[in-house]
Amino acid sequence: MNIEALDIGKNTKNKIFHKHSVEIIEIKQTIFYDDPIYFKSGNNKYMCIGKYNRHITVILKKIGKRARIVTAYPSSKWQVRLYRRKK
Questions:
Q1: Homologous superfamily (CATH) for 5-86
Q2: What one-character DSSP code corresponds to residue 76?
Q3: pTM for the whole thing?
Q4: 48 class by beta-carbon count within 10 Å (0-12 exposed, 13-18 middle, 19+ buried)
Q5: What is the pLDDT of residues 22-58, one digit of tens each?
């Protein structure tokens, strides 16, 4: 998937960090440098699973070549298995 830039609101960034303990650098590394897998989840929304120190799942909305981060969290066991199967 061709993503050139990420948009993330301040409230979203705070929620992701405080609720899920995921830092923005993990999201950026996962999307831009890991070659993650993507699954369409409806209306320009995608689930992205990748690995940067640990498996991370990112839900994003694609707008042109930009992606707005909806949420991100440590991947569940089934998401890690799915990632490994697809790689």
A1: Ribonuclease toxin, BrnT, of type II toxin-antitoxin system (3.10.450.530)
A2: P
A3: 0.92
A4: buried
A5: 999 999 999 999 889 999 988 889 999 999 899 999 9
